[in-house]
Write a structure and sequence with these properties.
alpha/beta, 524 residues, 34% helix
Length: 524
């Protein structure tokens, strides 16, 4: 019998779903890492929230594990690369707690504006500190949203209902979508200058880490109120403490922290600071919704092979899987390629299918490509959420088919328009393996490797030797070297498969080569 371990507190209804589908269920909450390692070989599935942490050691011991289901959005507690290497599907429930999290952000805005927790504590302690708590209204104030996706747009809707003005910074938000949700799209510096309240609704990535840095906070209005119910690490906590102590920041309310559980934090004890213990998704409705959803998804996968809301593989039905899988892998890698070289937000995305791939169900292939594209900046995106995220940001998506491919039996071309210019790559399944066959319209034939050095250069003598010397000096081993060019002396592409990442100083030296226009290490 298929067995599932529930490692965190899930609603009884989720347990009932597993049992009704004929799946044996054990509930073991609060296991230590060693205890989890000891029992995990017995199970085909593991259902978690955020306390249970299936890290690389746990996954290595999971000899029968096929799926990890996270009842919620964030998967910081799951080692996804280790799971992928082990062949374990990781699923989440991306939309089950959006309203709950948005409502908590609004509640924290009110709490900070009126200092409700501190006033309540002193009143119940026998004081009557009325003169100490002169708050500010939300009415007619400007709310600055950093991130205007699913949760951010709900916060905007509620704020507009409170008669606030809403400005939003989000590289993926189009002007059309901004009008649709009733916000003004602005750059980050403009938001910092104008906002009376700032709320954050973005995942934690290399691009968003400390997006509210000390320098950014210094650009804000005196008396600004900052609310973070998204992810710890988006805001420089020490800088916020300094701002609260100096009075530059009027108040702050955080539900998330860099280190959790946050038993100690630089912000604790600061004047006008409100803290909650990561309660964003903690309502009865949200807890039930995500628990039921993850149980259904895991049961479907374990019993039929259907994959839904997967973070590390395409969502494909059991019937379609054998034929679709190699194309889905290709589409996702093409998306990852474009996503890593598109350094700004996308105006539009186009996917072109040629040859025998046109006969297949292309919806999961498009979802795979979009997930790869968005994953460069949004860690929690998956096959189901990616199309919705693209749509809610108003980014145009075009698909086209051509039954005959001029050169290959099958071809997928991925394009993203960035700042009015298209970033383009195409790939094909050759001998059962995904290959890169075109970059910027230039033909070549290259493998997807874990590390690929992408160089756009002019085709002039000395470039290959200089590049090879720099990599050799840095002890970076070259596995493959593939070239494409328009014409002699013209625009050219080099895709260099390497066995490890390139040191930052070496990358700067490569950028300084006279033939180089652009260089980046891509990771697949």
């Amino acid at each position: 019998m298929v067995k599932v371990l529930i490692g965190d507190d899930l609603a009884q209804g989720a347990i009932d779903i597993f049992k009704a589908r004929g799946i044996e269920v054990d509930v073991k909450i609060g296991l230590s890492k060693d205890e989890l390692i000891k029992v995990i070989p017995e199970y085909d599935g593991l259902a978690v929230r955020s306390a249970c942490k299936p890290n690389a050691d746990v996954i290595a011991a999971a000899t029968n594990l096929k799926v990890i289901g996270r009842a919620g959005i964030g998967v910081d507690n799951v080692d996804i690369p280790a799971a992928t290497a082990k062949g374990v599907v990781v699923m989440n429930t991306p939309f089950g707690n959006a309203i709950t999290t948005a409502e908590h952000a609004i509640a924290m805005m009110f709490a900070a504006a009126r200092q409700v927790p501190a006033a309540s504590a002193r009143t119940q302690n026998g004081e009557w500190p009325k003169k100490d708590y002169v708050g500010v209204e939300l009415f007619a104030k400007t709310l600055g949203l950093i991130g205007a996706g699913n949760i951010g747009s709900i916060v905007a809707d509620r704020a507009l209902g409170l008669k606030m003005k809403v400005v939003a910074y989000d590289p993926f938000l189009t002007e059309e979508r901004a009008v649709e949700i009733g916000v003004e799209k602005v750059e980050l510096d403009e938001l910092l200058k104008r906002a009376d309240f700032i709320t954050l609704h973005t995942p934690l990535t290399d691009q968003t880490k400390n997006i509210l840095s000390a320098d950014a906070i210094n650009k804000t209005k005196k008396g600004v109120i900052i609310v973070n119910c998204a992810r710890g690490g988006l805001v420089d906590e020490a800088a916020v403490r300094a701002g609260l102590d100096s009075g530059h920041i009027g108040a702050a309310a955080f539900d998330v922290f860099v280190e959790e559980p946050a038993k100690e934090n630089v912000l604790f004890g600061a004047p006008n600071f409100v803290a909650t213990p990561h309660l964003g998704a903690s309502t009865v409705e949200a807890q039930d919704n995500v628990a039921f959803q993850v149980a259904e998804q895991m049961a479907d996968y374990l019993l039929t092979g259907a994959v839904t809301n997967a973070l590390n593989m395409p969502s494909i039905s059991a019937e379609e899987a054998p034929r679709l899988k190699p194309y889905a892998v290709l589409a996702e890698k093409l998306g990852e390629f474009v996503g890593q070289i598109a350094d700004e937000g996308y105006d539009a995305v186009a996917i072109e299918y040629e040859g025998e791939v046109c006969e297949l169900n292309r919806k999961p292939l498009t979802s795979a490509a979009l997930a790869g594209l968005l994953r460069a900046v949004m860690k929690d995106v998956n096959m189901v959420s990616a199309p919705a995220i693209l749509k809610e940001r108003g980014i145009e998506l075009k698909e086209s088919t051509q039954e005959d491919s001029p050169t290959y039996d099958n071809l997928i071309r991925m394009k993203a328009r960035v700042g009015g210019k298209w970033r383009t790559i195409a790939g094909s399944i050759i001998n059962g393996q995904p290959r890169i066959v075109e970059v910027k319209g230039m033909s070549l034939d290259a493998k997807f490797r874990p590390f690929v050095l992408f160089v756009n250069n002019t085709d002039k003598p000395g470039f290959i030797g200089a590049l090879g010397n720099l990599l050799g000096e840095a002890q970076v081993n070259i596995a493959t070297f593939n070239l494409g060019r328009e014409e002699s002396g013209g625009d050219a592409i080099a895709l260099v498969g390497i066995d490890q990442d390139v040191p930052a100083d070496t990358l700067e030296k490569i950028k300084a080569l006279p033939q180089v226009r652009y260089v980046k290490v891509l990771k697949f």
